[in-house]
Amino acid sequence: MTEILDGKELLPDPAITLRRLEKVDDRWVIKAEGGTAAACPVCGMVSSARHSNYQRHLRDLPLQGRTVRIQLGVGRWRCGDACCHRRIFCERLPNVASKFARETCRFSEVVDLLGYALGGRPGERLGGRLGFPVSDDTLLRRIKKTARLRSPSGPVPIIGVDEWAGRKGYGGYGTILVDLKRSAVVDLLPDRSVASFEKWLQEHPEVAIISRDRDGVYAEGGYSGAPRARQVADRFHLVQSLIRAVQDELAHQRHHLLIPSQELVRSNAIRETPKALPGASPSQQRGRLPSPRQDNSGDSRKRSCSGW
Asked: What fold does the segment set 158-239 form as a domain?
């Protein structure tokens, strides 16, 4: 069944009204307006007494690979509740954008995902190609802000532990602890030692499984801090160990691996050797065959000479 795309479907919320959609330079501009009434954020009374209007400029999801900006006209309203201390309030649209935001909620959600998936500079490069022009500093600032606003985690039965560097190439490795059920970072330890990991495990007796690398530091800290917990090797380090073992074995058996290749080269050389024709001498094989055109030209020269 064929469906026709309505311009209203481009808006982030059906509460706002589409007025115009136009292309300006290399981006799309959507002009829309808010409702004819709004609720007071303090007392909740709905008011239709408009005080004034103002414009909000919001970045939205790209359209046809081009950036989109919404020019949203919203109103200021007078509160009709005499007991409310807020006399004039602005129209709030929580499904469109948060307070003082310059982008829609769905645009902000995609930017956060880019930051978590790729980080700063890679996220900036990919975002520019997809129509999300954000800087690497903005992506990193979003990640830090989300981490600060995250509620404290509860019990952590399955923990993943590994080393981390605050700045690559400058040493000073610490320890990162991840809740593998929620896929969230639980804590960061300032150093990479048995004592700090043991102390953290003693403060969290609910840990039942520890996923770690093959290093002995975290193994010793896990056995001393949580002796009843089960320790397993994580998938990343298992794959790395398998790759290293295969490479070592191939290097050890290199002389055996070269034998089939040498036989293949020898057989190809024998196959490409030209074979002699039966009953022909080598000189006849290398010589060029006479051309019929050359024979005709020679006969004509003889006839012309005999005529003189």
From this structure: Nucleotidyltransferase; domain 5 (3.30.420)
